[in-house]
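Exam revision sheet. Question 4 asks you to relate a sequence to its structure. Input first:
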Amino acid sequence: MIDKTILEVKKTERTADKIIKDADDKAAIIVDKAHKEAETLIERSKEEAKKEGKMIIEREEKLARVEAEKIIKKSEKEKEALAKKSLKKIDKALKIVIKKVMEGR
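Answer key, structure tokens:
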């Protein structure tokens, strides 16, 4: 009877050991899968961040080009205005020079 009880206890211990080993194996598999999924999510997030960053850069470059074009147009208008003023002053200066030359004769 004691031998039978000891055999039952040993059998129960073996069953418990097998259950523990199976649980450990399954837990290791779950942890490995979780690590792989986390790595996949990290890589996906990095790629999405790169794409978003690229879109932001492209959008800002377009805005900068538009602003640069506005500045160029404004500068060209100012250049034309200064050129007109310069021509008027050249005419005035030329008249003064001609007058002085004529007075010198």
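Marking note for examiners. The mean pLDDT is 92.
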